[in-house]
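step 4 of 6: structure.
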Amino acid sequence: MFILIVALLSGLIFGLGLILSGMTDPAKVLAFLDVAGSWDPSLALVMLGAISIGFLAFRAAKRRGQTLLSAPLHLPISRTIDRHLILGSLLFGAGWGLAGLCPGPSLVLAASGHSGGIIFVVAMLLGMVIFDRLEKCRQVDSKLNDRQQKNIGRE
Amino acid sequence: MIDWQSFTPVSAFTGGMIIGLATALLLLVTGRIAGISGIVGGLIELRKGDLAWRAAFVIGLLFAPWLWRWLGELPPVHVESSHVMLVLAGLAVGIGTRYGSGCTSGHGVCGLSRLSPRSIVATISFMVTGMGVVYIIRYSLSSS
């Protein structure tokens, strides 16, 4: 229960930070991405502010090797830079540049009742569902392939 | 050219630090990464035994504009994109962040804070593409 309250609080604080920083305004995000025009570098400072605290937090967490409640950390284990990582990030960047919205700010914008934010979020969730379905199909396919290959090996 | 009129260094940096604090809180108490696309993606996957904290985080996030509005007025936002553009962008962001295992928060904030080589590559990839797409829309398409 304590963990759920902390997660709720963390989400709330995260959202307030997004609103204060200006990330929930797509025009401001696009002005940051528009390096050739009248460039608004604010979002670089958002990243810098977040990373300055994040860096210390991750260093402390790694040094402890566990959470403050002595539970295990759930850090990403993958270290390979593969096609998925790069193609996915390129596609994400294209969408970000099209509308000036990324997942966190879009959820806050939609929750504030903005129709543009709601349209974006519905499409984004649909995109995530499409990915989920494709991924599950792929897993079933690769299992089938494994089984076929085993059978071939037996013959 | 830097647009000094629109530049908001204090609110940007302070807002960033607050995002960092939220990330630190989630990490140090629950051991989880505050990557929004990953948290929402896990909800969509319906991964068992792992849904409650994700739902709690998202509810907190969605509650933020309401709390803000209760205390004052939300800052103005400007959405320039058409509905078709928003749908295309949303689909690209949804599929892209899941395929690339992260977004601005997961790779850009948490990943760079951890000095993860994967996240550095991902962040450069989406930053450069985002800038490229804005350039194409604003300068290449409109001038032709």
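step 5 of 6: annotate
 - Residues 9-143 of chain B form one domain.
 - The helical segments of chain B are 9-30, 36-45, 51-71, 83-99, 104-113, 117-143.
step 6 of 6: archive
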